[in-house]
Amino acid sequence: MSQKLQGILDSAETIQRSFSEPTSILVTDTKQILVQVRASFDTTNIPAGTRLDSMPPNPLLEESLRTGKVNKAEFGTDNDFGLPFIVTWNPIIDNREVVGLLITTTSTEKIENLRNIASELSVASEEMSATSEQLSNVSHTISEKIQAISSDSESISKMIEDAYQVIKSVQEIANQSKILGLNAAIEAARAGEYGKGFSVVANEIRRMADQSKESSVSIIEYLEKVNAAINGNNSSIHEIVTMVEEHTASLAEFNNSLDLIASSADKLMSSSKL
Known about the structure:
Keywords: Transducer. The protein is α+β, with helices and mostly antiparallel strands.
């Protein structure tokens, strides 16, 4: 037996313990199994002396023996072990000649779990990013609508202010009409019998002036209440717009964080590849 092959054979258990994950070891020469050191998950039992040609055909094993090439194959959970693993066929070369194989079967359960977590993380990140983008669009739309309402409210406030001026003019006219009516009544009294008809008209003018003044005062009071309400709404609208803008900015930062999470998930997925 090759000295190098013998050294590996003697160190098989030490080699097994050097792996960070559960690993089974098979050492062969070119014809048969020399030793099997099983991990806890390994349910196979291959006795020393088992001929390689008596085992199921394995192109990767045969290629490694024939060419000295290292071969690997990864398997999922659909197997007798019930867990994912990777098999590596390492040629043992002595004096430029393949004298045997060191076959390792290593559990990749933890790595597979990391892959699943990375995949789930990536999917969740994409879903959260899509939701965040929708919220951002909604916030932007709300902000635009509120600003439009605020603009309309400001226009209404301007219209109310214009109405104030008109009503004040009406009040002034009413005051002047009342004075004119009073003067007319005085003159009608002076005119005696000839001024009676004119007196009736003068009194009616004074009465209508008083009614106009009272109505204009009521309208002003009402407009003041409306204006106060609109101003209050404008103040609340401006606060809401500010909050929406801050919320939109927060969503943008949240999207950046999601991008970082997605990037980390991709890196995690890449690093778990064997």
